[in-house]
Amino acid sequence: MEAVGCTVWAIPEGYIPSGSVSQAHDLVSHEAACFLNASDRDAEIKITLFFRDREPIGPYRLTVPSRRTVHMRFNDLTDPAPVPRDTSYASLIEASAPVVVQHTRLDSRQPAMALLSTVAYPVAAS
């Protein structure tokens, strides 16, 4: 199967509200990165978070198996440190194989929830 995507992605906008209208898993405010690995080899992913007023955190690590998808919530990242809530951040994603990355946020601080989704910025191959 032909690989699609890139090995370096950036998500310049990140923010996880600490509040939610419910503690039900599907209604908790969150940020997510959805990965598609259409290649024939596993993709080892490293995520580094950048902040306005503090040093970066990372790398967070995960594997996206070959010909699979992984939907990862930033809320669930804990190693090397939990992602801070109510704090703006940006993400740099580096992959060992080409992947496609989609970024999603659910803001459920109010009953009229907002869902935002966009494809991350791929760094062009040189």
Structure description:
Helices cover 0% and strands 52% of the residues. It has 126 residues and is an all-beta fold. The radius of gyration is 15 Å and the shape is globular.
Name the features:
126 residues, 8-stranded antiparallel beta sheet, 0% helix, globular, mainly beta
Task: Compose a concise summary of this entry.
The protein has strands at residues 6-14, 30-37, 43-50, 57-64, 68-73, 89-107, 114-119, 121-122. The chain has 126 residues and is mainly β. A hairpin with a 6-residue loop joins strand 6 (89-107) and strand 7 (114-119).
How are the SSEs ordered, and which strands pair?
Layout lengths: L5 E9 L15 E8 L5 E8 L6 E8 L3 E6 L15 E19 L6 E6 L1 E2 L4
Antiparallel strand pairs: 1-6, 1-8, 2-5, 2-6, 3-4, 3-6, 6-7
Characterize the biggest β-sheet.
Answer: 8 strands, antiparallel
Please tally the helical runs, counting DSSP H or I stretches of 4 or more residues: 0
Residue-averaged pLDDT:
87
Stretches where pLDDT is under 50 for at least 5 consecutive residues are none
Number-wise, the strands total 8
Strand content: over 45%
